[in-house]
Amino acid sequence: MELSKIGVSLKEGCNIEGAELAIGFLKRDIDFNESIGINPNLLIQEKPYNLSAVCDINHRLQGIITQCINQGSFPLVYGGDHALAIGSISPWIKPNFGLIWIDAHGDCNTDVSSLTQRIHGMPLAVLMGHGHPELVKLIKHKLLASQILQIGIRSLDLKEKELMDAWGVNYLTMEEIRTMSMPELLKIVSTFTQTHDHIHISFDCDSMDPSIIKGVNTPAKGGFKLDEIIRLLESILASQKVDSMDIVEYNPIKDDGQTHAFILRLSQMLEAYTHHR
């Protein structure tokens, strides 16, 4: 299977300086098949912040992902903020699709619930059909809560948690994960992958502990260690059902070099995986 590396230069979903530089820094070591950026002409004062520009870049990303699907290639999407997941995931949604969302945050806020009005805190809600009409309009088929497994959650807004529980989103907090063994965690993940034919991994770098991985937009204490996340990802890939992946929220101006190196390691994992599929 061919690996298609797609760079998305985006900070407008979070408005945190440095996120837009992720692709420029990664280009030193990664040969991107395609890269896209924000249309500055669409940056206007509105709420959610940068709505028009974020909708536009996700619409263009949807076209790229659809082309990958038609060609049978594996899209590996790199980016600044997680708002890009609307475009990277929505073309895949169908009844036998499963989404593994590895993140410190729930990303299930809406334009009504969000205190910050940052769209990078809304993409999973949008994929389920909740949120601002202009964002939801991007979704042709809505993702069901039963198609989602969130792993590593440890920073939720109160209203966001209420929404996730009401929608029936299946999530494992880091507090829960710390009470179980790694084999127990991997068994839960394996059960999820076995019930779906096509898996997308949306990997947020802030799922990692910030004492190790510093180059992220919104760090949260108590995340995964390197050996833990590698074992988890290796287990998911071993299912041979993963067809696409995001690596997001990289912020190079906060990095000490370890985040960049970690992303390159993940890239090598996906290169080996797609080479043997």
Low-confidence stretches: none
Secondary structure tally: strands: 8
Q: How widely separated are the two ends? A: 6 Å
CATH architecture classification: 3-Layer(aba) Sandwich
β-strand amount: 15-25%
H-E string: EHEHEHEHHEHEHHEHEH
Choose one word for the global shape: globular
Q: What value does the Rg take, in angstroms?
A: 17 Å
The major pleated sheet works out as:
8 strands, parallel
Could you characterize the architecture of this molecule?
The protein is α/β, with parallel strands linked by helices. It has a single domain (3-275), classed as 3-Layer(aba) Sandwich (Arginase, Chain A). It has helices at 22-26, 51-71, 85-89, 123-127, 133-136, 158-167, 174-177, 182-194, 226-237, 258-275; strands at residues 3-9, 34-37, 74-79, 97-102, 148-153, 170-173, 198-204, 242-248. Strand 1, helix 1 (22-26) and strand 2 (34-37) form a beta-alpha-beta unit. Helix 8 runs parallel beside helix 9 (226-237). The protein starts with a strand and ends with a helix. The mean pLDDT is 97.
